[in-house]
Amino acid sequence: MQRKFSINQEVRVKTSEGTYREPPNDVKGATGKIAEQCIADWLEKSEIVPMETPRSYYVEISENHTVLIGEDWLEPV
């Protein structure tokens, strides 16, 4: 299954209306970019864990703040 967002794509974290892997309140409404998904991709390809539905993404909010967020909480900028 192809991902909805690509690496380094700019995204905004929604403030509501998401259902899966809700982000912390301090990042709701913030913008960031989709970070490398190496661990998640490796786990799915190795079939150690089943693919998530909906998917989650590591989103880099700032240089040293990355958060795992469900894709229904994200929208393109």
Question: What order do the helices and strands come in, and which of them pair?
Answer:
Blueprint (H helix, E strand, L loop, with lengths): L9 E4 L17 E4 L3 H9 L9 E7 L2 E6 L3 E3 L1
Antiparallel strand pairs: 1-2, 1-5, 2-3, 3-4
Q: Can you give keywords for this protein?
A:
single chain; 77 residues; mainly beta; five-stranded antiparallel beta sheet; 1 helix
Strand-pairing-aware structural class: mainly beta
Low-pLDDT sequence parts: none
Oligomerization = single chain
How would a crystallographer describe the biggest sheet?
A: 5 strands, antiparallel
**String of helices and strands:** EEHEEE
Distance between the termini: 23 Å
Mean pLDDT: 85
Folded structure, characterized:
The chain is mostly beta strands and 77 residues long. The protein has one domain (10-76). Helices cover 12% and strands 31% of the residues. The chain is built from one helix and five strands. It has one helix at residues 38-46, and strands at residues 10-13, 31-34, 56-62, 65-70, 74-76. It has a five-stranded antiparallel sheet with strand order 4-3-2-1-5, with no helix packed on it. A hairpin with a 2-residue loop joins β3 and β4 (65-70). The protein is globular.
